[in-house]
Amino acid sequence: MTHPTAFNWRPFLLRWSEEWADSLPDDATRSEEDEAARQARWLGFPPASKERIFAMEERLGRRMPPSYREFLKVSDGWQHAGGFVRLLAGTTDARWHNNESGLADMFEEYLDDDAGPAERRSADIWRRGLQLDVVSDITHVLLDPEDVDEDGEWAVYTWASWRAAPPERYANFAEFMRSMHQEFHGLRARPAAGEPEFVNDTTRELDALVEQARLEALRGDWERAEQALDEARKYGRPRAAGLGDQIRRLLGRTYMVSFEDLATDPQYAPELLPSLVTEHAARSYGDDSTLRFDLRGAGDDVVSLAYATLEQVRNGTYRYTATGPFGEAVERARELARWGDTDAAWRTLMDALPVWQPLGPDHLAPLGWVADPLLGPLLTPERGRELLSTPRGGQAGEAPVRAAGLDPDNLAWLADPDAHGDRTSYRFVLVEAVEPEGLPGRLADANEATLVAPMTAHEARQRLLHGQREFSSYDDRALMAVGRAGSRWSFAFDGAPASFDPQRFISPAAGASAGTRAVVVWSGLRTRHGQPFFHLSVAQDGTEQYAFTYADGETHRTGRIPRVLDPDRFFTSRQEATEAERPLLEALTDVFDARLPRHAITNGRLHTFTTHSWTRPPENGETYAVISMNWNAER
Q1: What is the pTM of this model?
Q2: Where would I find the Knr4/Smi1-like domain in this sequence (predicted)?
């Protein structure tokens, strides 16, 4: 915020005036006022005397706020305040608005019946405000005598109907004028044909600031860099928005990120377009015409690349690649993420980041990987800060603090409520000394013993339902995601299982344990439907070793259960059954030294397959229903 008591008005207004005068073509037609201002190199007026200021305050019945008073002592009004206020009031023209525009009535109509005092006071600005706009492009500028800070400064509010936005607030008049100077620069930063190049002391200072920010960003000082780039962006400086958007995207602040001209530059498009089209795919709802707005000015090759990348992003086939040692790390990280070890995948990328090289001087960090279906889910705001804090691109700096891992080294996290409260029941299979690719051969029917390409749990379920033609009340074929569950185990996990039927349930542990060990867990201790239940079975070399099922308040067991897993230690009463989940999962972690990757299961993409049924076929006298769907039938 501009502190009004520290604002030196005269050099600021002189610089603004000279920049405005130098930006005008010599042969353009101008009004007499503008030509006089150009010749004088001064957009203001003579200073207001103490007597004029006093008379103004007498007329208005209020002492003016400090920053506006100090401004008037230098110039009694102002021309071309920004791009849309032709004349700003001095001592003679400032007047109470008194709802002359009728805007108070309009804003009050938009208020809800339960609008609070602050909202109603905001709408009333059009009755109490001091109007400063004299000639403008339907742009209102009001000083608010009731929005006053400890220094006696009045807030400034501006509003233009054509902006389709609520009134914008500035803390004081000095801050408003500084913003109008920035708006003037932003409108001049890209001169039209025939206009002089817009170069002056301010632009040179800002461009040097942008270059320094670029180097600071590569050294890992992204916070200082972002602050400098934001300042330069307010003035419309080329490069500032494109560089700043790279920082914002890695911090997860995707709104209005477009990378400006960089995304359409063939030099940078391979890295920046994937991120851009990924956000478009997430919000476009099938309308791809809006992508053209972000691609304005792009050549045919870049446009073709953008739409080809968009198709790959939508069907999950986009694959990020990079050159050199960092590119090799990308391949290793993708393979780790493919099987759920997202923490190791992230560490692989970060360890190689110092040797990453940019595609050009305006490239601050690797970005295309955020669109990769396996690598993109690795990004969190904390990890984005770690990446941005890592020196790279040939620059030296301090090593960053590592972001904490996302995966607990246990199974007990399954007892935590998930963000949406949906995980009340789940089941999983652990198989020792078998790679994840081998699980379908142990748990699925022969004709379905293949893995589907990695996708989120929601995408996998939608895919299954879309292709399913028959639904049975007795068949329980689980859709399971697979990956590694530590150094010795692979897992198959189902986070949305069917209802548990203890009378017809058949554990897949024995069939999965040929030549090794297998563990099956099915928990419904927090289920919303029916009674809480929990099942554990352990098999080795095709034979079940021990098992227990807690359901309907009773425990059924087989085999010699290790004391540490004895259900009597956990299920002492029906009332305490829901409290047994975490201790049970902790005990299973200790006994089998296995874990499940939380981030990959809840936020990532994993291979999936459909198992054979977890229930036995119906016996004589048992009823069931089968529903067949013909999706292609005429309606």
Answers
A1: 0.89
A2: 47-179
